[in-house]
Automatic annotation (TrEMBL):
Lineage: Archaea, Methanobacteriati, Methanobacteriota, Stenosarchaea group, Halobacteria
Residue stretches making up the DNA-directed DNA polymerase X domain: 2-324
Polymerase/histidinol phosphatase N-terminal domain mapped to chain residues: 348-428
GO cellular component: cytosol
Coiled coil spans: none
Protein's name in the database: DNA polymerase beta
Length: 575
């Protein structure tokens, strides 16, 4: 079976390769089709088997792209893409991971220097060849050289949204196996880290061989990396999945141990040692001392259930998102763990786009989708024109006035409260370049940095947070996961200013961003600020990505009270 991700990856590669060849318009069409395929709620494979018409029902997928999707599902390849690969044999996926290297750069560097791989790029930068190419200089060469290490590391990890659906699919698949008693995810995927090295999955079973066999036979597995009696690893869609089969009586201990993090486990093990006990992946044992040849020696205090291990150590259960060794065990011991925000606590979204700027859907379509998902209110925050926003995409002040009026007109016709807003651009000097009276007339103003996204950014964002009409700072650092680093921020200071001025700091739920991240959330909350979990959705299906934002907020110890859009619309409008 071909996954939606796999189809989307091909379409994105298509877009990149067309762009590298400097083809106009088409790359954008492929990219948008890819985004819609990736988040499409139904299996695109199943649609493809019905034919091109069924595939063409997906938003932004026209006849030509639909035919390519069907070709891919049926044959495993797309002829035209193979031709493009022959024309430009560079590893475009790996090379574009280097910050500042886009598809066009890949095309130029291939034409001039024959660069195909990261190693080629590294060697060319080392030899000073890149600066000799037209359009490049010593500075761009140095920037490329500086980005290569990060790009190499990025290729060893996966973004959470690429791994999580696969992790959930293998979990469900193993859960229905007749020999499995229980299944749990473990490791960073269970802690909802924004990027993961691999997916860890544990199964409680007395029949390791049967589980391992089913695991390696999973239809979505691309290859088996290793397979033993109780352990195996496969690769699926570029993601490594590690399986461990454990005895049912030890499942809780194994789940605790392999969920980590290492730092959390060190703190927890210390608590066991303080009681003259021993904690390891097999259980919690009444045996003094840390080292023992027989890891199962001593009387077993707990091991079957994870919660019982914490309980025996006089602790309440600790949510996986908190297990980073950042004081959660001390907080748990003192009864001071946060009551974490849940997806169900969210009542609105203050940052979505429509086709008035670069979204794919109308105001009504976004409103309907948000209402279907149970939200009470929706902030339409289309892009204002400005630096960092592609020409023609952002709204001028006059267009924004008309858009605002249109949103208010439609508000009476939809089953959700619409808020008229904007996503303004924060310039490097902290100004946002929209008429003040116009800003004052809007229900919600999101201001975000969209260009010049490196170096220190605190003063820039502080100025925006102090602006009387700004309600939300969107994706504050501007970082991309496994992409660019974004602005350097003094989050304590930004949090204090945001608190003083009632400006909420966004956790942008788009998995490419997850900005602010968990650690940053914790810092700004401690400084007294509120956060807001927004999807920044550009199409209805992207509203479902909100869970990544919620779990990121949870990694930052956020409670419902800390989150602006967990409050009523009246509270939001007062802010
Ligand atoms: P990742 O996969 O790099 O995103 O991060 P994790 O946390 O999933 O790390 P991974 O897959 O290497 O191991 C899963 C968990 O198992 C890890 O969080 C803690 C635990 N663990 C694995 N090996 C060791 C070890 O040698 N010592 C300790 N203390 N814990 C370990
Ligand atoms: Ca892992
Ligand atoms: Ca692992
Ligand atoms: Zn946005």
């Amino acid at each position: 079976m071909t996954t939606n991700d796999a189809v989307a990856d091909r379409l994105e590669e298509f877009a990149d390769r067309l762009e590298a060849l400097e083809v106009e318009y088409k790359p954008r069409a492929y990219r948008r089709a890819a985004e819609n395929v990736r988040t499409h709620p139904e299996s695109v494979d199943a649609l493809a088997r019905e034919g091109t018409d069924a595939v063409g029902e997906i938003d932004r997928v026209g006849d030509a792209i639909a035919a390519k999707i069907v070709e891919f599902v049926e044959t495993g390849a797309i002829d035209e893409l193979e031709d493009l690969r022959d024309e430009l044999p560079a590893d475009i996926v790996a090379l574009t991971r280097v910050e500042g290297v886009g598809p066009k750069t890949v095309g130029q560097l291939y034409d001039a220097l024959g660069i195909e791989t990261l190693d080629d790029l590294d060697a060319a930068a080392e030899a000073g060849e890149i600066q000799t190419v037209d359009g490049f200089g010593p500075t761009s060469e140095a920037n490329i050289a500086a980005g290569i290490e990060t790009a190499r590391r990025a290729s060893e990890r996966e973004r959470l949204d690429r791994a999580r659906p696969r992790a959930e699919a293998i979990r469900e698949y193993l859960a229905v196996h007749e020999d499995s008693d229980e299944v749990s995810l473990a490791g960073s995927i269970r802690r909802w880290k924004p990027t993961v090295g691999d997916v860890d999955v544990l199964v409680a079973s007395g029949s390791g061989a049967a589980i391992v066999e089913a695991f390696t036979d999973w239809p979505e597995a691309d290859r088996t990396i290793e397979a033993g009696d109780q352990k195996a690893a496969i690769e699926s869609g570029g993601v490594r999945i590690d399986l461990r089969v454990v005895a049912p009586g030890e499942f809780g201990a194994a789940t605790q141990y392999f969920t980590g993090s290492r730092d959390h486990n060190v703190d927890l093990r210390q608590r066991a040692i303080d009681r003259d006990w021993k904690l390891n992946e097999f259980g919690l044992f009444d045996v003094p001392g840390v080292e023992d040849d027989d890891q199962r020696a001593g009387e077993r205090i707990a091991g079957e259930h994870e919660a019982a291990i914490y309980d025996a150590l006089d602790l309440p259960p600790i949510e996986p998102e908190l297990r980073e060794g950042r004081g959660e065990i001390a907080a748990a011991a003192d009864g001071e763990l946060p009551d974490l925000i849940d997806a169900g606590d969210l009542r609105g979204d203050l940052h979505v786009h429509t086709d008035a700027s670069d979204g794919d859907a109308t105001i009504e379509e976004m409103a309907r989708a948000a209402a279907e998902r149970g939200l009470d209110y929706l902030g339409i925050a289309d892009h204002a024109a400005g630096p960092g926003i592609v020409g023609g995409v952002g709204l001028s002040d006059d267009e924004l006035r008309a858009h605002r009026d249109r949103i208010r007109e439609l508000d009476d016709t939809v089953d959700i409260r619409l808020l008229a807003g904007v996503e303004a651009n924060i310039a490097p000097d902290g100004t946002i370049g929209i008429d003040d009276d116009l800003l004052a007339s809007l229900d919600v103003v999101v201001a975000s940095p969209h260009h010049d996204l490196s170096g220190p950014g605190t003063d820039r964002l502080v100025a925006a947070a102090e602006h009387p009409h700004v309600d939300v700072i969107g994706h504050p650092t501007g970082a991309y996961r496994l992409g660019r680093e974004g602005l350097g921020l003094d989050l304590d200071r930004l949090g204090q200013v945001a608190a003083e001025h009632d400006t909420a700091l966004e956790v942008n739920a788009n998995p490419r961003r997850l900005d602010l991240g968990g650690r940053a959330v914790r810092t700004v909350l401690e400084a007294g600020a509120q956060i807001v979990v927004n999807t920044d959705a550009h199409r209805p299906s992207a509203l479902d990505l909100v869970r990544y934002g919620v779990h990121t907020a949870r990694r930052g110890w956020a409670e419902a009270d800390d989150v602006l859009n967990a409050q009523s619309v009246e509270t939001v409008l007062d802010a």
